[in-house]
Amino acid sequence: MDAAGSSSKIQADGKRADSEAVAFDFVIVGATGDLTMRKLLPAFYECFRRGQIDRTTKIIGVARSDLSIQDYRVKAEEALRDFVAADSYDDVTVRDFLGLVHYVSLDMSDRATDWSGLISLLSTNGGRPRVFYVATAPRLYVPTADAIGHNKLITESTRIVLEKPIGTDQATAAEINDGVGRYFTEEQIFRIDHYLGKQTVQNILALRFANPILERVWNTDSIAHVQITAAETVGVGKRGPYYDNAGALRDMVQNHLLQVLSLVAMEPPTAFSAMDLRDEKLKILRALKPMSDHDIATDTVRAQYGEGHPNGKLAPGYLEDLGAPTSTTETYLAIRAEIRTARWAGVPFYIRTGKRMASKETTVVVEFRPQPWAIFADNPEPSQLVLRIQPNEGVSLSLASKDPASEQYRLKEAVLDVDYVKAFNTRYPDSYEDLLMAAVRGDQVLFIRRDEVEASWRWIEPILRGWEKNIRPLETYPAGTQGPASSDQLLARDGFVWKENIQ
After folding, report:
1. What domain of life (predicted)?
2. Is the dihedral of CA 49, 196, 226, 264 positive or negative?
């Protein structure tokens, strides 16, 4: 998205229709980590290939590893070869891009070390964008901000990007926000959530607010319930130690899925600006009905995957993946939430996420209310609007139609489907591509404000505490399934079912 927040289009030559090459200094703290190699460098390469990055730009990797610039460029080239799509990889373009990549061995959380190597690479032009992307453990966010401030590297055009999670609860989130805020203004702090960089998540706003036919039925009069699902077929893998301290609620709901919920439920903003959009998202987060102990017992489900046979092959359980004898960490959850506004009164929002599930999908399902009286012999199923965030990005609407093969007046479901990739005849950029360039431009539309983080934790924390008290006992589910039966019962109580296997 450009500085005004409008979507960019990728042309046949690979360039964005509204792209303009910009020059900047981008410092990646934690530059030898998996995120940098798997996501950040490939995203920058794609932006460079499309002509969005000026050749005087410097992408500076910083880590404690004792590497030369050439050593780091070799690692970067290996990462590009592994993670850039084959039809985008070009040897000449890779060589030119690597000329922008630099490396400094430095512990950036230590203000007392020698920073001269990094300082010598940074432009002295105060108007040139300078971004510090902190891809480290959250406990290092404040020391890193302190060290950057101590070394007088903060200009009017400097921003700092913080990866999630911002804390593990309200208190630790406030500590991080207060600590970083001592050196950077709120306008300079970019809290990243890669879900907001997904084109299909951004398209929720376009579907709602650019199509009055939808917005006029987007309320409790027409909508029966909303489902938000983020399912993965993989286990925890190498993230086991981190994941066991976080769990699905912290890892997925507090940030990603509550952001999706707020986009689905928010009121129309006054203007398409960072301030107005985030004001409306914040109202929804604050309007979520607080979860009492009774609500936690009846309206939440938590579970952990055990051994199973997805695709006929034996898959280990969470404890085997983790290499630990016991754990109470949830790898699956389902929550029934309510939003206390006039628009959404009486409309339940169901959130679920899990690992080692039967299929990989991230979707939003909006089910409309059924016809109040039946005039046909076979009353049709309620219409559903399905937003496919990933994979198979697109949107579909199911409608009842007369079955032309029936001699009598029988109804059959017909689906209006839009496959975004086919419709726009283009590749969908990785979420980090838009996010990195937005940070360079200083556009905060796709980033999270401090009060949003705090409102999310305020709703999540009682659930965490309730689970710690075992108000809702931990269940298990076989790997390769859609979670425990109690998750189905959560919807069945209201007369609904999960929408499964959306393609």
Report:
1. Bacteria
2. negative
Binding-site residues for NADP(+): 64, 164
From the list 102, 150, 225, 256, the catalytic residue is: 256
Q: Which of 248, 274, 199, 276 is nearest to 448 (CA)?
A: 274
Residues 6 and 10: their CA atoms lie apart, in Å, by: 13
Write the CATH number for 466.
3.30.360.10
Task: Give the C-alpha distances (Å, rounded to integers) separating 97 from 26, 43, 284, 311, 436.
Answer: 14, 12, 42, 41, 16
Which of 133, 158, 191 terminates a domain? The answer is 191
Binding site as annotated, residues: 64, 164, 194, 198, 232, 251, 355, 360
Q: Does 502 map to a domain?
A: no
State whether 248 and 280 are in the same domain.
Answer: yes
352: tokens are 């679920």
> What confidence tens digit (pLDDT) does each residue in 384-433 have?
999 999 888 899 998 888 777 777 777 888 888 888 888 887 777 888 99
What is the Cα–Cα distance from 428 to 417, expressed in whole angstroms?
Answer: 18
pTM equals 0.90
Per the annotation, the verdict on 225 as an active-site residue is no
